[in-house]
Every structure is written in structure tokens, then in C-alpha cells.
Amino acid sequence: MSEEQTVSLVDVLEEDEELEEEASAVLAGSDSDHCSYPQGYVKRQALYACNTCTPKGGEAAGICLACSYKCHEGHDLFELYTKRNFRCDCGNRKFSELQCKLYPDKDDANSQNKYNHNFFGMYCTCSRPYPDPDDQEEDEMIQCVVCEDWLHGRHLSRAVPECVEMQEMICESCMSKNKFLWTYAAHLAVPGSSEQTKEEPGEESAADVPKKVEKVDGVTECPGKRRREEAELSCRLKELQDIGQKTVQSGAVFWPPSWRSKLCSCTSCQAQLSEAGLSFLLDESDTVLAYENKGKSSEQSQQGHDPLMSALDNLNRVQQLEIIHGYNDMKTELKNFLQTFATEGKVVTSEDIRGFFEEQSRKRRRVDAGPFYCS
């Protein structure tokens, strides 16, 4: 007889808290009250697609967080997580029967926006919806930092490394379109993310070369110093190519934190990245992790201006301490109260909660009544 899997109330509360943190990380970085259109092509923001207004077969369109709330309430929406350099489409010519309530004066289209099948609720190389009702296999989805499509871990042709949430991934298709990235992958990719091979031994190292002192224009100069100065002006990508270490050019590639700072930013490489539409790879603040951290900071800042805290500011020190102690006591008692249900595996009913607060109210009345003295 197999044991039935049980989930305690503490597990539920912890999972709920994790979901709230994830939502804060994504949504707090975007404005929930004002359409983002006036900001132009926003560096990164939470986006949605409306299946009700722009279904498959029509033109792809994306809407900002505020418009998803104010203009598309009750519609069938696809959550796109975040995308870069996007301007809100809500109410433009792609929406034949809907006008944006927040910012109706918009151009017919946003020519710099980039769209993929995510805007019609399809994801990965398998072009399936998420969540997929026909997929019985548990699998995480990972976003490519270049095309920004979401792919199943099992469809990456590469084992997903540990701590993947701290790493960026470029899918095999994007790597193949930008072959110079394979050179970086051979040196910078997460260990095990790409199989590396060594070509013929390179030139002798600087340590094996006898040190010489040369005179340039009558001035004694160390050639080692000159080589370092020349290296600073050279192309880092070319240097990596000359080393001769290569990688098997197949499968997705995972990159460690701060890998972008190790990319070459010489004039030639900047031009190459720009032509490929990859200039954002030189910007470490472009990452989803940087955006999420910004969202968390914004959420914490807003919590710092909580109305309850503002009300406390208007009370004297004694009153503040009384309220804070009372709140902490109630929070502790509520936690202990719920813990007993979790420990015993009991279900918490509305009557249980009502009884708890009625008991708290009775305790409060006894305290407020003060001491009783006999005359």
C-alpha cells in the first residue's frame, strides 16, 4: 500500500511566499497603473499578449502590465514574463475593436518591436503551449537571452546545470546564427555546458621567452611592457581564437554570472554585435536577474511606506511600542495556532480561524478593562 503524499500548512505558506517573491521580482519592475508607451522602447518590462484581441492567425502584439489590468480585464491573456526593448501595442491598428484606456494616442505600429510564437501562446522548438495539458512530463522551461523564447530543458540538447537560475542560456539556434559566440563558449561557458577540445599547441608562452631590453628612439624599454600595452588595444575575441581551444558546436550553452563583462568591446566587435542585433550582450544591466533585483528593491521600498507605518509615525513612543508588541504577540500566537494543525495534519476551517480571533478579542477586552480592585 503506497503512502499518500501529504502537504502541511507550513509547506503551503512557504510556497505561497515564494510565489509572491517571484511575482514581486517580475511585476514590481513594471508600472501597474500607467501605460508604458510614452517611455518608448522600454529596456525590459513585464509583457502580455491578448488571445481575445489578437488571436493566432492575425498580427502578433504585446501589451504592458498596466494595460493588461485596465484594458484587457477578463480577456484570455498569455503571460510572456519579460522582454527587452519593447513598446506597448495596446490599442494600435492591430487591435481593430479596442482602444487603449490609458494612452489612446498611439502610432499604428511599433516597428522596432520583435515578436515570436510566444505571442500566440506557443513556446520552445516543439511549439507547445505552457502549461501543456497533454504533457505529462515534469520539466522546467528556460528562456534564451538572445531570442527570448522559452524552451523545455529536455529540448536543449544539453544537460541543465545546477543553480540554473543564476545563469543565462543561449539556445543552439541562436548560437548557430552567431558562430563567433562558440569561441567565447569554449572559454567562458559553464563547465560541462560545452564539450571543449584543444587544437595544436599554441605559441610559446611569455614565461618561456627570454626577457630582453630594447632601445626605442634611444629610450630603454622592456618589450614585455610594450606587449601588455598592445594587448590592451587588441581584440579579445581574436586572442581567444588564436589560443586554439574550441567547443563542440551543438546544443544550448549556459553562461556563468558576469560572463558579459568578459566579452570583447573593441570597435570591431562592437560593430559585429550591432550588426547581429546583439549589442545588449555588453550591458550587464540587461539581464533578467538585474531586472528582478530592481523589482525586489522597488517592492521593499514601497513596503517601507506602508500606511500602517505612516499611522505609527503620528503616535508617541509608548503608543508605538504597545501596538508593535501587540502585533508581534498576535503574529506569534497565530503562527503557533496554525502550527498545531500542520503538526497534527488537520485541516484549518473557517470556524477555527473565527474562534482564534474571537479568543484574541476576549483577551484584549480583559486587558483593556484594567485591574479590578475591591473596596
Automatic annotation (TrEMBL):
Which UniProt keyword terms apply here?
Ligase, Metal-binding, Zinc, Zinc-finger
GO terms assigned for molecular function: ligase activity; ubiquitin protein ligase activity; zinc ion binding
Q: Which GO terms describe its cellular component?
A: cytoplasm
Q: Which InterPro entries match?
A: UBR7, UBR7-like_UBR-box, Znf_FYVE_PHD, Znf_RING/FYVE/PHD, Znf_UBR
Question: Is Zinc-finger given among the entry's keywords?
Answer: yes
What Pfam families does this protein map onto?
A: zf-UBR
Q: Where are the zinc fingers (UBR-type)?
A: 33-105
Annotated UBR-type domain residues = 33-105
Q: Entry's Gene3D superfamilies?
A: Zinc/RING finger domain, C3HC4 (zinc finger)
The residue ranges crossing the membrane are none
Instruction: Please identify the protein, giving its name as recorded.
Output: Ubiquitin protein ligase E3 component n-recognin 7
Source species: Nothobranchius furzeri (Turquoise killifish)
Question: Gene that codes for this?
Answer: UBR7
